[in-house]
Specification:
Distance between the termini: 29 Å
Number of domains: 2
Helix content: 25-40%
Radius of gyration: 20 Å
Shape: globular
Order of helices and strands: HHEEHHHEHEHEEHHEHEHEH
Strand order of the largest sheet: 5-6-4-1-7-8-9
Number of helices: 12
Structural class: alpha/beta
Largest sheet: 7 strands, parallel
Number of strands: 9
Length: 334
């Protein structure tokens, strides 16, 4: 497939080019940040035989509902978590989350290493697991300061990995209840300020994330209210299934969709989990492929070669410049 044909098939490729330009404009890190949601954890690799799967929001809702209302049907996980805390106490709710999310059964996968190997100014996550933390430790030319509590913010330098909603094993509270979200701007104002500042300074990208998180809506709204037309664009990337009204609503909130579905039609990728994984791999490899051929990025131009794409992956967005391409390696190579 020729690059022109690729751009024709994927109209949102232009937005990916914008992210690549921002991502690779600095030396140690660029002017792009990313917020990683719960869906990204499903790209982990097993660390034990027959690992328990990560729960979806529906799974977590079912766990809470079974203990509180065995004969009823509930769909609001935040409300159920609120009721569970009222019935059993906060300590038991936090313990239930730890029991439901099998962090130790999994290790960082290829996509975690790819994501953390890119020169983000900041990586934010609402996930409790430690997959991104452990992926960062595997990097040999890039060091992230991990921020799990507000007290760690002053001493942290970019690039930072910021755990916004708590972190295993014991960085409490795990943000989950309606009251947690309602009071988050007041109780965790330093985290809110950190995200808002990053949104103002960087191109902001979301993966594994629906864009419906109450905190995200509050942060993006604050930036929109204070910066107006000068607010940086927020990109939501993945296999998206939004109708026209939903797209218009997100666009009004300064959220631009990067829908990879045209490259990954269900007829060619019938396995839903594999389809999502390959789509995110294509996106991250295309970002990696945007690294410019500039001597200031040494040693990114020495062997071994960059991360090989998985079989069946569509052609990546081509590099912006060709010199040194044959010698390039990526920060995510191991």
């Amino acid at each position: 497939m020729l690059p022109d044909a690729l751009h024709s098939m994927l109209p949102d490729a232009l937005h990916i080019e914008q992210i690549r330009t921002a991502l690779w404009r600095g030396r140690e890190f660029g002017r792009a940040a990313i917020l990683v949601g719960a869906g990204f954890s499903f790209n982990a690799s097993p660390a034990v035989v027959s690992p328990r799967p990560f729960p979806t929001w529906n799974d977590l809702t079912g766990i809470l509902a079974r203990e509180l209302h065995p004969s009823s049907s509930y769909s609001n996980a935040l409300r159920l978590a609120e009721e569970y805390e009222a019935a059993h106490g906060r300590q038991r709710l936090d313990q239930l989350i730890k029991e439901s999310v099998p962090d130790s059964h999994w290790q960082p996968g290829k996509l975690h290493r790819l994501l953390m190997g890119l020169p983000w100014a900041d990586v934010f996550t609402v996930n409790y697991d430690t997959l991104l933390d452990r992926a960062a430790l595997l990097l040999h030319n890039r060091k992230y300061d991990v921020v799990q509590t507000m007290q760690e913010i002053p001493a942290a330098s970019r690039p930072r990995l910021v755990k916004l909603h708590g972190s295993f094993p014991s960085s409490y509270p795990f943000i989950l209840t309606e009251e947690d979200f309602r009071t988050y701007p007041r109780r965790f104002a330093p985290f809110v300020n950190l995200v808002q500042q990053s949104m103002m300074e960087n191109v902001f990208c979301l993966v594994g994330f629906s864009g419906e998180d109450p905190n995200f809506l509050a942060w993006s709204g604050w930036v929109r209210d204070n910066l107006g037309p000068l607010a940086p664009v927020i990109y939501l990337c993945g296999l998206l299934n939004f109708n026209d009204a939903q797209r218009r609503l997100l666009n009004a909130r300064n959220v631009t969709l990067i829908d990879l579905s045209p490259l990954f039609p269900t007829r060619d990728f019938p396995d839903a989990a594999e389809r999502h994984r390959l789509a995110l791999e294509w996106f991250l490899l295309s970002l990696e492929n945007g690294c410019p051929a500039d001597p200031v990025y040494w040693p990114h131009w020495t062997t071994p070669p960059g991360t090989p794409p998985s079989p069946g992956l569509p052609p990546l967005l081509p590099p912006r410049v060709e010199p040194y391409r044959a010698e390039r390696w990526s920060p995510s190579s191991f």
